[in-house]
Design a protein that fits this description.
heterodimer; A: seven-stranded parallel sheet; disordered N terminus; B: alpha/beta; ten-stranded mixed sheet; about 25% helix; about 35% strand
Chain lengths: ~500, ~450
Amino acid sequence: MSNEEKKNLGAVEELSEDMKIIEDLTKEEYKWGFVSEIESEVAPKGLNEDIIRMISEKKGEPEWMTEWRLKAYRYWLKMEEPKWPNVKYAPVDFQDISYYAAPKKKPQYSSLDEVDPELLKTFEKLGIPLEEQKALAGVAVDAVFDSVSVATTFKETLKEKGIIFCSISEAIKEHPDLVKKYLGSVVPYTDNFYAALNSAVFSDGSFVYIPKGVRCPMELSTYFRINAQETGQFERTLIIADEGSYVSYLEGCTAPIRDNNQLHAAVVELIALDNAEIKYSTVQNWYPGDKEGKGGIYNFVTKRGACRGVNSKISWTQVETGSAITWKYPSCILQGENSIGEFYSVAVTNNFQQADTGTKMVHLGKNTRSTIVSKGISAGRSNNSYRGLVKVGKKATNARNFTQCDSLLMGDKCGAHTFPYIEVENDTARVEHEATTSKVGEDQIFYLNQRGIATEDAINMIVNGFCKEVFNELPMEFAVEAQKLLAITLEGSVG
Amino acid sequence: MKELTKKENIKDWYLKNFELFEKQMNGHNHELLKKVRQASLAKFLELDFPATKNEEWKYTDVSFARENKFNPVSTDYKTSLTKEDVKNIIFGNFDYNLITFINGKFAAELSDISADSDKIIIKNLNSFIDSHKEIVENYFAKISSDDNLFNVLNGIYMQDGVAIYLKEQSEFSKPLQVLYLNGYSEENLLIAPRNLIVVGRNSRTSIVFNYYGNPKASYFTDAITELYLEEDSSVDIYKIQRESLSSYHIEKFQAIQKDRSVLNHYNLNFGGRLTRNDINSKLDGENIETHYYGLYLGKENQHIDNHTFVDHAKPNSMSNELYKGILDDKARGVFNGKIIVRRDAQKTNAYQQNKNVLLSGEARIDSKPQLEIFADDVKCTHGATVGHLDEEAEFYIRSRGVPEELAKSILIRAFAADVCDEIKIVELKEQINHLIFEELHRQEVSY
């Protein structure tokens, strides 16, 4: 074996090391013997009306919610699984899934010293603060940094401003009027196969309401991250920004998350009224499967925002590095006059990962504007597709769109694809689309090498430069972590 | 126009007519063609006319094909047309050879093939089969022509077409003009031209396809053109389509290119109620160049759909594509450009651009540029824009004392120039420019 080959192998092994840590982490769940406790809280496999009634009942939901779930379920029965995405996977047996499980307990350590040192190394690479590391690894958090007390402080600040931030189950009970009015108004249960399934069985998720004229004083992520709860399989998020309000919401986590649920079908709905702005950032790093392409999470998400009011704005930023299959199109319906939609995305695929992601910008109101910046990086044997729609309706006078989607290929076994759809029905519209595909330039690497920078670091630097436009849109600390995450994901992908 | 009653199946209509069609050929059905027809018939039973659910036909509704019976068997064929009649239809002022087909059938009296037979053979397909059987055997119907029912329909009912064989080491500079005069009949005809072009090694030529329709006539042109470019060969193909505004035009063009060959394809679209072009190239060799230029003008309720597909199968080739559309009234344009760079096709350069202007509030465009890339050492870009004539530019021109109409024409002229400038036959370039303004009913800005 030549040195070159050895180096390659070493890199691959190192990557799988990371996977091993993640695997170990989940295995340990069983070692700690929570099995019996979990079992008592898990619904039998399969899906039927009784199961839905049971979920609804367990959550103590009112009658109208149960009915809504059932309607969605009945509709779902009539639908077929979509086949059009540019991804391949073994069919999902929807009767082999348990649709309700009480939140699982994480293994508890008494201090960080007990945690797998490899995991800590990953955390360190990501630059996650010590206290958060503890929370993520499942270490009992000390009194000074008690997440509950911190959360309470946050809750009080939010309450003062009149902001509602709670789980969707709580919102259904406490704020039924708001939920009734907005739930399913952006993504109706008839929208698509997975949205219908989610509407029928969604377990939990977040609910945010920002009252008129309020600027949310903190990134809602901060709260979320410290509370880092087990991600549900069928999450449902609803964010409403009333007139003149602003909120920045962050979902996900840079830390690698392994989940036993293979199928994830979440729905996110955003509603921005007059002069309101919502900024929604996602970092997704779920288990992508091993280097042979076995296992890994199917991430089939429906995310959509409606700019209902004049001068409203919705901005999506996503960094997608995990999951075996990512399939999502965070979209904006630009109804209000002068409303703005933005989409910034970095999607990285390695090994056997597949991503089919992009956005839809539907211009309905006058003077609406949208910007799409998508950066796709494929390595290993992965496939990365951008699929986007820009639609300008008949009444959308002076609509403006700018789209740029760039792909970077690393290695000759991966694929990069672009499927943009441009539909224009108004002559005053201006739509521009630009796409490029290339590899990391040898001249760029050479230039950096010659400045004394090792090839691996040089590639990181170039890739980060490639993604800069998107990272700039992320909240600051997250942008820093995202950069490191990118480096870890691509580790060893270039020989 | 004959319309179907609800219960009648359109496919039965075409099957029913086949017997009649065979009889009419009077034994002139060559064995080779017979085989293709039989294979197509078998496929015909399996397929249906594409629905808009089909991704390739998402924006083009072809219910016309389901609702109208087009007559594949013409009975009133006569050549009442004289050379004088077609003088203004032909693109003139340059030296050319001419081969003419009326309603899809070869019209010897309107053709002028004074070709140098040492270098090139130009014939109608039916007589070419008799004289050059081995070439037909080697090249004819080698591409997939059962992608959809339209292709299959051509396979069943192909009548004739042009067959061009350029021998090795030949340069044939005099362009060949292929004139299709369609709709010269009372019947609602199905016209199925089938063209075969073989360019031998190290040879070059240029061909002008001139599809012209009898104004107001209703008919359906369903064509297939096959082009084979051997090593080091080069060809310019101009397709100028001026079918009648109540006719339908569908063509599949497929090129197979070998090492170091160069293809320039110009697709200039003016006529047709509904037009669908599938223009495909397979780059089956290295150091190949493929250039696609397209210009489509839509007015009234025209529907123009251009699908292009460049398949980079081997390394070190380049493709370049520029399609521009001008849409007025209620016209609808569709562009779908696909580039595939296969795993082996390293060092590929592929460029694609689609630009559109909408001149009316009711015009519509759906553009779908597509890149599918499996090799890493490549440079590929695509771009698409949709807009209207730039007010600022117009204001600037008008502030120089130019009237509004003329200012707009200047901008249209400038927009179309990117494609027109690439036309290598100067006289043709001028005539195309003239056609643009004539078709849009606008003041002309000359070349």
